Amino acid sequence: MTNKEENFAEWYLDIVEKAGLSDKRYPIKGMNVWTPYGWRIMRQIDTYIREEFDATNHDEVCFPLLIPESQFAKEKEHIKGFDSEVYWVTHAGLDELDERLVVRPTSETAMYPMFALWIRSHQDLPLKTYQIVNTFRYETKQTRPFIRVREIHFFESHTCHVDYDDAQKQIEEDIEILSRIAKKICLPYTLLVRTEWDKFPGAYYTVGIDTSMPNGRTLQMGSIHHYKTNFSEPYEITYEDKDGEHKFVHQTTYGMSERLVGALIGVHGDDQGLIMPPGIAPFQIVLIPIFKKDNQETV
């Protein structure tokens, strides 16, 4: 196996293959097969995520994979950030569709038209939802298992609030949830507010969730966003306040992907092979020393 310090990139590919975490031989670049061993690790991380968000009164949902182009295009800054990365469905069988469909790159444009139907009064707020799904992005750079793929195992929470301050409290809760999940999976991280050019398309501000890899590069594992009313205005998500006035909700999102697995491989593995923290390791091993009277002190 390649030495980790000498060539981290090759070491990473070696360890993913030798440990049997993912199989890249599927005939579409960047769409890899989760093997049983790798999937057990991801499922345990998903379990921790579900436990944390269920405990903080988020409701799990599951939205469709396909998004009408007209809905996708409503938030101009959002589509400008994704237009080069999306997959399009143009035909159903032999028939050309009247309207193209986007294969979900992220779910704002799928969920928010429904939020506009669900929310009527301030009593409906906060609305706190999450889902764990696969998203699709046409990644044109070199693909790498878990770190840079075209089909992404993805967690995303979406919330709606009465005002900016209440949404900001949600951001603070998200950061606390992150700290608990990171502790369970033994993953170091840093939080950094992104610059204007690096924030999520359509966001008011973005907090990146990063970790440092052994080659000195930073890996973004997830992000938290405050949208203000940047999405609720084009999607007309409003509520009636206590005085009967109609206002736009303020929104947040929080997303993390299978990059968590890639980060764990890079941070904990060594030249002997894969090392997984006890909280997510599919197999637990305990070494029990066996000694006799004459070698007890040595053992």
State the total count of DSSP E strands.
Answer: 14
What structural category do the secondary elements indicate?
alpha+beta
The CATH homologous superfamily is called Bira Bifunctional Protein, Domain 2
Quaternary structure classification: single chain
Structure in words:
- It is a single chain.
- Helix content is 29%, strand content 27%.
- With 299 residues, the protein is an alpha+beta fold.
- The protein has one domain: Bira Bifunctional Protein, Domain 2 (BirA Bifunctional Protein, domain 2, 2-Layer Sandwich).
- It has a 7-stranded mixed beta sheet with strand order 3-7-8-14-11-10-9. The chain has a 3-stranded antiparallel beta sheet with strand order 4-6-5.
- Helix 2 packs across helix 6.
- The longest helix has 22 residues, at 164-185.
- The radius of gyration is 22 Å and the shape is globular.
- The mean pLDDT is 94.
List keywords for this structure.
globular; 299 residues; BirA Bifunctional Protein, domain 2; seven-stranded mixed beta sheet; alpha+beta
Short structural description:
With 299 residues, the chain is α+β, with helices and mostly antiparallel strands. The protein has a single domain, classed as Bira Bifunctional Protein, Domain 2 (BirA Bifunctional Protein, domain 2), CATH 3.30.930.10.
Give the helix/strand layout:
Blueprint: H1 8-19, E1 22-23, E2 33-34, H2 36-55, E3 59-60, E4 66-68, H3 69-72, H4 76-82, E5 87-92, E6 95-103, H5 108-118, E7 127-136, E8 151-161, H6 164-185, E9 190-193, E10 205-212, E11 218-228, E12 238-240, E13 246-248, E14 250-257, H7 259-268
Parallel strand pairs: 3-7
Antiparallel strand pairs: 1-2, 4-6, 5-6, 7-8, 8-14, 9-10, 10-11, 11-14, 12-13
Helix pairs in contact: 2-6
